[in-house]
Amino acid sequence: ITQSTGEKKRESMSFKLAPLPWHRDSLTPLMSKETIDYHYGKHHAGYVTKLNELTKDTPLQSKTLEQIIKTEKGKIFNLAAQVWNHTFFWNCIKPVSDNKPSVPTGELEQLIK
Question: pTM, whole model, 2 decimals?
């Protein structure tokens, strides 16, 4: 979410779907463009839309996602947490290079074996 600014107070505005940090087809062959479109374009976007609907014209509208997650319960908590989780997830994965997935090396490789 692009307006999330940690613990700072946001201006009253709606939450926005942050752009993906890579092109939608750049995770192929591990994750298809269609899968990205479905999870980002439908699920993630839907959580943002529903969160905006429930927080419009309320004091929550000026809070960050983190503040909402820490203070709210029920549907608003769930929506804010889903938006945060999806944004975090998209920023944790990266495109494969040369159509080969990343392979762990070093200590992590040894722990896996």
Answer: 0.76
Cβ pair 56, 13 in contact under 8 A? no
Q: Which one-letter DSSP state was computed for residue 106?
A: H
Can you give the pLDDT of all 113 residues of the chain as single tens digits?
Answer: 444 444 455 555 689 999 999 999 888 888 899 999 999 999 999 999 999 999 999 999 999 999 999 999 999 999 999 999 999 999 998 887 666 666 778 898 888 88
Instruction: Kindly write down the DSSP assignment for every residue of 64-82, as one continuous string.
Output: -HHHHHHH--HHHHHHHHH
For residue 97, the cross-strand partners are 100
